[in-house]
Amino acid sequence: MWNEFEKQFWQGVVNEEKYDETYFNSIFSFVTSELLDLSLDSISEMPLRDNTRIYSEIIDNDNNTGSNLIDIDSYFNNYQVGDKVLALYEEDNNYYVATITSINYLERTVNVIYDGFEDEGEYVVSASDIDNYNEEEEELFSDEIFDNGTRNSIVTDKIDFPFVNGSKVFAEYYVDRMYYLGTVAGFDEKNSTYKVIFSGFQDEGVFEIKEDKVLKCSDDCYYIANDKTFITPFKFPEICEDKEELIDSYLLSKHHSDILNRLLQDVIVNDTTDGWKQNIPDFIKKYFDNDEFITLDMMILIYVFTEFLTMCFQKSYHNIKV
């Protein structure tokens, strides 16, 4: 997916070990553009897969690059007319199974017919908005994720407030306004503030944080996290105020989180990392040239990030006035 120059650029950014916005974004550039776009505050249109645009914006002033950083023609190498693919449907920004009916190399687009919607005819989709489809694997954007029963979970999965002492949370640090993992050490009902001890920064003492700047973190998530995750900042994304889109975003992030949790729990229970990479879900694996670039620390960080996003969507949903 990435040419050699791009790989060197991103690796250089990661190796700087700077916990600023550039570093935060670069971590997820290797994984999925859904996650990267979320961290770049474009949650209102999800999921997106425009890595070319994001990469261009970050290094726009670099004379060695241009706006056409990735050879989009390479997208066609593995596709031909009649192939089944996952294709973006612009009306809801989700991916669905479709059949390629024609390929326009000049315009870098494909014509597709979505399975189950043959009566609607052909749709034109950008080459960068199609992906491999394997009918033997679970679809990333399966309708089952978004069915009515599942959609109600954003309402039924209620969180008890206030959090009791010892609760694990994501809390905003007032200096950089980023969220970090921590533990509740008390609640001031009069001032609506929590006392929080940030994990990895215990020596800095207890911080008083406004109630609306504290998000629940599950025990599963917290105890899988490691020292590298504790010092990693998470930014609360700018989120749309459409309740239906928030439900979709919540369910998708929760779906990702559940899959990664099962993967990591297997590693913990079996007390071995032998063969664990074989179980990495395709929605992450396909963004790496090979398994060598995937580390357990990276999987833990991505898992915690998806958990954080899930709580952001849930909080935003309940904050919207009916």
TrEMBL record:
Q: Which InterPro entries does UniProt cross-reference here?
A: Chromo-like_dom_sf, SMN_Tudor, Tudor
* N-terminal signal peptide: none
**Which Pfam families does UniProt cross-reference here?**
SMN_Tudor
Kindly list the biological process annotations in GO that this record carries: mRNA processing; RNA splicing
> Residue limits of the Tudor domain?
78-151
Q: Which GO terms describe its cellular component?
A: Cajal body; cytoplasm
Indicate the family of this protein: Belongs to the SMN family.
Species of the source: Strongyloides stercoralis
| Subcellular location per the Swiss-Prot or TrEMBL entry | Nucleus, Cajal body
Source organism phylogeny: Eukaryota, Metazoa, Ecdysozoa, Nematoda, Chromadorea
Which is an annotated GO molecular function term of this record?
A: RNA binding
The name under which this protein is listed is Tudor domain-containing protein
Q: Which UniProt keywords apply?
A: mRNA processing, mRNA splicing, Nucleus
